[in-house]
Amino acid sequence: GKSVDETLAQADAILHRYGYQSSSTLRNRINQEKVFFQDIHLSHVSKYIAMNRLRPVDTAIIEACDITPDGKVYLTTAIGISPILLEKASKIIIELNSFHSPRLREIIDVVVLHGTNSWPKGLDTPMSRVGKPYAQVDPSKVIGVVKNNEPDEVAEFSDSDETCVKIAQNVEKFLLDEMIKGSIPKTFLPIQSGVGNIGNAVMKQLGESKEIPPFYMYTEVLQDSLIPIMHCGKLLGASTCALTVTTKSLNEVYSNMDYFAKRIVLRPQEVSNNIIASSQLGVISINTALEADIYGNVNSTHVTGTKLMNGIGGSADFSRGAYISIFICPSTAKGGKISSIVPMCPHIDSSEHSVQIIITEKGIADLRGKAPSEKAQLLINNCAHPMYKEYLFNYIKSSKPGHIRHNLDKCFELHSNLLNFGTMLPE
Length: 427
Known about the structure:
Elements: H1 2-10, E1 16-18, H2 24-31, E2 36-38, H3 42-50, E3 59-67, E4 72-75, H4 82-88, E5 91-97, E6 135-136, E7 142-148, H5 162-181, E8 191-193, H6 197-208, E9 215-218, E10 221-222, H7 226-231, E11 235-240, E12 242-243, H8 247-255, H9 257-260, E13 264-266, H10 269-272, H11 275-281, E14 284-288, E15 291-293, E16 298-299, E17 302-303, E18 307-308, H12 315-319, E19 324-328, E20 332-333, E21 338-339, E22 341-342, E23 357-360, E24 363-366, H13 372-383, H14 386-398, H15 413-421
Parallel strand pairs: 1-2, 3-5, 5-7, 8-14, 9-11, 10-12, 11-13, 14-19, 15-22, 19-23
Antiparallel strand pairs: 3-4, 4-6, 15-16, 17-18, 20-21, 23-24
């Protein structure tokens, strides 16, 4: 939150940082090369700590509802990597936050995998509970307990605009078509949804759809839009590693714990984001892209291939093994100055091999079973904005024949134009 990453970055107190971040100050310092940032898959962070692949952890600050004399730590709304930090850090400070409901222990399910490429025995459905309601620490390592009463720092998302709504409608249309074909069973499949305004709009659309049946989620974070659709019974249950909801939504959960305790499971990130989960549970993954190239490679993290936005987070943790992997984005950004469909991505987070479906407000490109040339036609015809279609088709024509056509003299021309002229298609 702001009081951690933003405050520490402003104080020039961060030298190395791992994994997803969303602080504007920290982002700037990373892009100025003043903070060393490794954009790790979130599923790997706990594993790397457990296997001593990262720098040793001297002190870990862990938020909790309660701690017992024998070292049982009852965590709050974000389990994340706390269980492995409690094991591996030399010293522990417990932040005892009385704002949070002590009944959170009813939805917490802690299993520590200790870096192994394994899957918890008995975790056969999104709502399976196979662990303990607490994490364990050696009491001798706890050097202090700090008491406070502070809500989580989760900002409200802005209302969905017309583009977000249209993307959400296209996602609904695709999923309904898959049900008609029999690819998705009538009982539906678990969904994973990425963070952000578009992801929120998609889940709201699916929650309000009269044709999409009630469903479960196996996801990284549970956002605001999911609370009302869970309350009305459309979302049957959700497994996640964090309740990333506003204070208003969190208070609604706390006020109705008899209802929500049966429908939410909070897990460590190494379990929630485990790459085995998507294939084991048949997850439909839905994640946001910054841009996609005409062959289905996705850039989720770096503007013009160089400037970090937030990080890959857990998108590839889910998409690589998903039953169906979907990436969503508007066809343009900055009022049309930027096309989200480009000849070649200057940075790739998810390769064509783990990208099955791309959806913009303009349409749907089903890339499954398609050769590169077929993918290009689909993405330009169905997903690109009309003002960029002629350029993209001409790019293909200017490229030499091959399994994948590219013109290495022009493949980054749109990005170069953006840097030099402030728009990808200058007059």
